[in-house]
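REVIEWER CHECKLIST
Item 1: Sequence provided? yes
Item 2: Single chain? yes
Item 3: Sequence as submitted:
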Amino acid sequence: MRDLIFALMIAALVVVFIVQPVKVEGTSMLPRLHDGERIFVNKLIYYDEYRWAPKLDRGDIVVFWFPDDPSKSYIKRVIGLPGDTIEVHEGIVSVNGRDLEESYLDPRLNLSHRSLARTYVRPNYYFVMGDNRDNSSDSRIWGLVPKKYIYGKALFRYWPLAAASVIHHEDVNPTGPASPGFTPRDFGEMSTGEPSPQPYTPGESSPEP
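Item 4: Structure as written out by the authors:
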């Protein structure tokens, strides 16, 4: 009995400080994540100012408080890091003038080929997008995500059991030479503002319109 109690205490500490269960709601992360699936996210990225904590990288799938309404949580993929310049031309995303090779996308879910003017990712902010580009509300629409609003990185899918698996990091790096004439910050910066922090403890749900 003592060993069981000890194991439960350790499990409780892990859930409180290291991982958090999250329910995926919506289809914006297809084909990688499906509506109704449940995943664990690594909460240690919230403390990435410490040397021992994991860092956010391009390609990570993260959950965060929606900047326009922090009572809601979204789940998206990190595309732009602080200091990056992001541009979308007919559906092709470029970072700092170089195109991204996004092999994880399903072409059938990315038919609109929308464009976006160059956007500078300010310090302590991130540019995020859903993998289902035709049906994702993300940084293309409402702007950047403050670093302090990101509270977890997708780690493991635990439900349904038949699909249980580690959620691997996608190596998303720009390829090829920079576009001719590209100069960092040579653009009109997207105006996003920085929402005022509001006291909110996220629940188990991560809506993703």
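Item 5: Key structural point noted by reviewer: The radius of gyration is 18 Å.
Item 6: Recommendation: ____
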